[in-house]
Amino acid sequence: MGRSVVRAGAARCPGCSQPPRLCVCDLLPPVETAIAVHLLIHRHERNKPSSTGALVARTVNGCTSHLFQRATRHHPALGLAREAVNAGGEPWILDPAGEPLPAGAAATGSAHRPAVVIVDGTWREAGEMTRSLDGLGRRVCLADPGGRPGRYWLRDQPGPTHLSSAEALMGVLGAVGETAAEERLRLHFELHVYATLLARGRREMAERYLGDSPLLGAGRDALDRFHARSGGAA
User: Fold this and answer.
1) Residues 143, 175: contact at Cβ < 8 Å?
2) How would you list the strands of the sheet with 64-68, edge to edge?
3) What are the start-end ranges of the H helices in the chain?
4) pLDDT over threshold 50, residue 53
């Protein structure tokens, strides 16, 4: 088993939360989309280096982040207010138990800018956050990936339909035909996972991950600059 190369309390990049030599900021252009992306992120999740919700907030232009926390003696309740989602229509709320999102659902060229709400937290936290959105919009799920293995190697997922926040947004972008945005976000996601594996000291696992990654194709320039910055981490 690898050992983290990051000492407890060591400096991390304020943007991507990686150690400075493994920083992935500014290596890829931001993601441009016609969809209004709303991210509801649990307060326990927002500072985790492995969080793909934080990745979406950092890389998707126009993404709006909302902090979720239940009311306690020390903290007021926070969440996503109905008036914060100004879609001009019914927003989509991603939920594995929702109805299928129709393939080819309109995005670009629609009469209004569609909005999608994605929750980010552990699966238990995500269930609580999703319930807090009752009545806010239409609950939708993505098409079954058909047994394709997930690429989020940083955490165990309960099943193939349980995706990280970034993978879920990629699925939405693909469903509405925004393939350029989907591919750009995929590169950001793959670089995030790769860098985090290296930060954890999982070099062999990182090399296996890279072997099937689009970073070796469309993301080659960003990958080369990452390796130059990190001193040839791989």
Assistant:
1) yes
2) 64-68, 36-42, 115-120, 92-100, 138-141
3) 52-59, 123-131, 165-175, 179-199, 203-211, 220-230
4) yes
pLDDT at 155: 86
**Domain residue ranges of the chain, discontinuous segments joined by +:** 20-145+160-179
For residue 9, pLDDT beyond 70: no
Taking alpha carbons only, the member of 187, 70, 175 closest to residue 125 is: 70
Instruction: Give the C-alpha separation, 39 to 56, whole Å.
Output: 8
Instruction: Round the CA-based radius of gyration of the chain to a whole number and report it.
Output: 18
Q: Compute the distance between CA of residue 56 and CA of residue 189 in angstroms, rounded to an integer.
A: 9
119-165 tens-digit pLDDT: 999 888 988 999 999 988 999 998 876 667 789 999 876 565 578 99
Place of tokens 């910055």: 229
pLDDT tens readout for residues 209-229: 999 999 999 999 999 999 999
DSSP string, 167-230: HHHHHHHHHTT-HHHHHHHHHHHHHHHHHHHHHTT-HHHHHHHHHT-GGGTTTHHHHHHHHHHH
Phi, psi values for residue 4, rounded to 5°: -55, 140
Tokens of 152: 């989020």
CA 127, 129, 131 angle in degrees (round to 5)? 70
